[in-house]
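Memo to structure team: turn this sequence into structure tokens by end of day. - J.P.
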Amino acid sequence: MSGHSKWATIKRKKGAADAKRGQAFTKLIKAITVAAKMGGGDPNGNPRLRKAVDDARAQSMPMDNIQRAIKKGTGELEGVHYEDITYEAYGPAGVAIMIESLTDNKNRTVSELRNILGKGGGNMGEAGSVAWTFEKKGVFYFDKTKVTEDQLMEVALEAGAEDIQEGENDFQVSCDPASYETVKAALEAAKLIPLSCEVSMIPKTHIKLAQEEATKMLRLMDALEEHDDVQKVYANFDIPDEVMEKLDV
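Reply from structure team:
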């Protein structure tokens, strides 16, 4: 399975055992603040803000925190200025990595990310070095025990989804980013609730990893995602099922 779907599955399995609530709130507040600054404080008219608020509610963030973050973004309250920066990098075995960050000090962030990458067997790349490997897509994951492929085809494809892929335990529905909100609304109206959904960077090519490389890559993904300034990490690794069975995840 590809890095995107495999990593999503691994994170769901690890679940709350690895959750760092304070750190999660910090990242969510940044996401809400930047979304409100870029598109206004009304979630109904700002899809990016609506997604950030939905994510915050899913983590049980108090509404006071959410409203305060929105007001900091719109300028109603004084707040920190965050920059939305995407870094391109390489991991073990030349795996392509995209790192989305929100930072108030880009020099600090890039220095710390270089250090994490170096310790994890990777290195920072130049702008444009790996971006071509990915394409932006809306992605929805569904538990196979809760929904059928026929249900998804009837609702999602009719609403504009492009593809439905079957994994070991889930279905992955993908769509053009412009259709994301329409597909999401149609699925919600049909009471088809995804395990997770987002507009994501999907790799067009993949690098298959052996056990040692896979272990290093997953540790690097963990280290990058734990950084306070990092919002999302995407990579084009592929871990065969027989290798996954040997990994401690």
